[in-house]
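anyone seen this seq b4? input:
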Amino acid sequence: MIRPVSRHACSVAALVLALAGCGALATQERRAAQGPSAEEIWTARVVLDTGHEPTFDEKQRWDDQMDQRISQYLARNPALANSLNVTTFRITRQVTVGMERDLVLLLIGPPVLFAKDTAEIEKLARRFWPQVKNNNPKEAWLYPQGWRLFVDDTRVVDITQYLEP
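predicted toks r here
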């Protein structure tokens, strides 16, 4: 025999669901060693431009083009082709701290916005500015999904993400 659920249990369940919903709406801010993937940024740009997710054919075409661009880059830069970091670049296609600027641009394209002024870079770093500042960034590059890449003359020196509900 199934027993009826008490009113107290229903109240507790409703409270848990309500609190979980509030947590999902909270601002998310983090500092990361690994940033966005090429697919994540490309998908976000397609959605922003067209208002819909890319189709299977669009994704396949993009994937083939990305493979070709990566292969061409590695052919021009054989030292990278033999490095330990080639997996992150070729397989996961994900931006990481220490990645060269050229590789970032190859993977995820140009930023939506960039800042060279120290005050603007500080604003974009938000609460992580003390740590980011220690890495001496020269520029901050802003991408969809709240990704911020902090770069010096040659490499990514820090990565943060800030998402508002």
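The two ends are 44 Å apart (CA to CA). The first strand starts at residue 28 and ends at 32. kinda curious what u guys think
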